[in-house]
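Sync notes, pocket subgroup
Present: LS, DG
LS reminded everyone that the earlier model was apo-only. Rerun requested with cytidine-5'-monophosphate included. Inputs:
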Amino acid sequence: QNGFTVAIDGPAAAGKGTISKAVAAHFGFAHLDTGLLYRAVGAKVLAGKDATEAAQTLIVEDLEDDSLRTSEVAQAASKVAVIADVRAALLDFQRSFAARLGGAVLDGRDIGTVICPEAAVKLFVTASAEVRAQRRFAELSGKGHADTFEQVLADVQARDARDADRVEAPMRPAQDAILIDTSELSIEQAVAEAITAVQAKR
Ligand code: C5P
């Protein structure tokens, strides 16, 4: 790993995506949302493909599909994410991205623990399940989706459990990760905390 890597992990809807984009923009780093890799594989499985084969043949264009954002694809993603061969197939792409000169932000579940254990900065961004479900619910309602709050909360909890309890690269903070709980923070406050943490290691 030659580049300056920022690893940002945490559960769904804790604010990882927003924080990662803001940190990348602030420092001029490249950004990879690694969840998209698992979502793209999940979408292919929903379309009838074999998970491991889908992961081994994934191309960058597969990550640009708007339909990857649905909760159906999110659940499918967390199911393929327990498969060791799927994770292995996606490893090199993520590590090469992290090694970019000029710096890179990668966000996901296992960036600080497995993908980039030598990352210069590791953040673990969390919030209570209720707060995260509330945010996801507001986002989905805004887009005209009919899911109830209870459905969204159940979805978030099912995905948390699958991600945290799996044997292969379970979601957990790296030992040297800085925790940011966004439950009671505004987006601006959360972003400011993350930027301060990265600045301190530059
Ligand atoms: O972050 P996002 O919600 O897009 O991730 C979708 C799913 O992909 C997660 O629930 C998780 O199961 C899986 N994932 C993973 N490791 C990562 C990123 C995502 O297992 N680094």
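DG: The longest strand covers residues 121-126.
LS: The first helix runs from residue 16 to 27.
Action: DG to write up.
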